[in-house]
Amino acid sequence: MPKKILIIDDDRDTVDFVERILEDHGYEGIGSLSSASALDTIRAEKPDLILLDLFMPEKSGISLFRELKADPDLEHIPVIVASGIPQVAGIDVSAFIGREAETSKISNSRVSRSPEGVVNKPIEPDMLIGLIREITSQGDLYRR
Questions:
Q1: Paired strand residues for 32
Q2: Phi and psi at residue 77, in whole multiples of 5°?
Q3: Closest to 2 measured CA to CA, from 68, 47, 36
């Protein structure tokens, strides 16, 4: 059974592009264009990994990341953040999300304070697949 990867991004072209890359490499790609309904989608689909855009109109990826990692039923799911921020602003996304999560009310010590990976947009397919393979090969480390 192929690993299931949920792509949460408000840009349909990005979702379609990543779904094709994933399918070409033996993964099942599932797209979600709404960050607001993403937690429901995550619960329904039970993905092995999430590729999460940071900037979306209804709810930011950072807010969704925090909610995901604060939920005991979902916190084990690894997250790769996809963003154009590092190229535009020179920001270390993992460190930024980590600092933001530390100041939030997430107190469970098992909660990852930063994403398991970060990819820059535009997404480089080989880099994305390499990162996904690395993270999913660790499988049980992220499962309870």
A1: 8
A2: -75, 120
A3: 47
Residue holding tokens 């309904």?
37
**So what's the pLDDT on residue 103?**
41
Q: What is the pLDDT of residues 29-39, one digit of tens each?
A: 999 999 989 99
Prediction pTM value: 0.82
18/15 Cα distance (integer angstroms):
5
H-helix segments, the chain:
12-24, 38-45, 61-70, 85-89, 93-103, 125-137
Total number of domains constituting the chain:
1
3-state secondary structure of 36: coil
For residue 105, what pLDDT is reported?
43
- If DSSP codes are grouped into helix, strand and coil, which group holds residue 115? coil
Answer whether residue 144 is part of any domain.
Answer: no
- Domain with residue 126: its CATH number is 3.40.50.2300
